[in-house]
Amino acid sequence: MPMQYEALARAGAAAYREKEAPLLLAIESSCDETAAAVLCGARTVRAMTVFTQIPLHQKFGGVVPEIAARSHVEKVGAVTEAALKEAGVSINAIDAVAVTYGPGLVGALLVGLSYAKGLALAAGKPFVGVNHIAGHIAANYLTYPDLAPPFVCLVASGGHSHIVRVDGYCSFALLGRTRDDAAGEAFDKVARVLGLGYPGGPALEALAREGDPHAFSFHAGFNDKPTFDFSFSGLKTAVINLVHTAQQRGETLCAADVAASFQHAVVETLAEKSVRAAVESGTGTLALAGGVSANRALRSAMQRRAEEAGLRFCCPEFRFCTDNAAMIACAGHYALMAGQLSPLSLNAVPSLALAPEVSAR
Q1: What's the CA gap between 298 and 273, in Å, rounded?
Q2: How is the beta sheet containing 151-156 ordered, strand by strand?
Q3: How many C-alpha atoms does 152 have within 13 Å on its Cβ side?
Q4: Given this model, what pLDDT does residue 300 score?
Q5: 130 closest CA partner among 102, 165, 155
């Protein structure tokens, strides 16, 4: 059967590239969302379904990998069926299957990967694994029909903070990255210290709107370096120390001011480094992606700085910011068009890298 499937997959992939509007089914299960989507051609979303696990993890204050994996097992079938139903097609009408295979939680990744393999094998469809970060970048293509490489993209999420030069649809260069906590991770940790619960990022952003972003000065010396790398651990620790010191002294801090000042420090660091990287790259376009791209303060700061630098600024619709399968489908489409095809032996890679790091300073 594997040899017979390989022949079918190769033929299916060739047929996919020849079609004017091929249909692609994608599955995403890298963390705490079980998602499926059907894409027509490169950028037309026919269906998009997402089951969020947030209520399951709230009592623990963060994602519990075992619970996440078990939930994916329970929901992946229904979520996929819902996407096909919404698109009005059967699995037989699908031309190819794409799925996230890294980075992410290994147990969670394996659920989606195994399910996608099973579908592809049973239906005799070509199958391609997609890098989750490449998916986030591709979310911009779903919002901007005319957007094409090259451009620079900041990918900011709970697990990743990368400045990426997008040289082609499947070609990337890592210009800068966080050397410790990711931006979203730092947001969640500060939110926890402020008693805001999980998920912390949106709660902290909401609280920050009520505060003064200049009430406190949170600074990390590492971020003053002329590289495109950044550090958020020091900013997070500064907030924690401020809060703990106030508690020990019996003093009352304005939580909104703390949240606003911390958010301002993170946002300005991300925006400054990303804009500088885009200017030096000469591409003329700066994009934003990842879960933290839903943060309105970051979107505003990036757009303002980009326009001041004469850059075009792009960021996804809010529905494409957090983990979803439409972005995976888009990245999968371009992978298939580039001749990429994955074997059924493809394994989950929890620490999968997007691209080699380059020196572009």
Answers
A1: 13
A2: 171-177, 161-168, 151-156, 285-289, 312-314
A3: 28
A4: 97
A5: 102
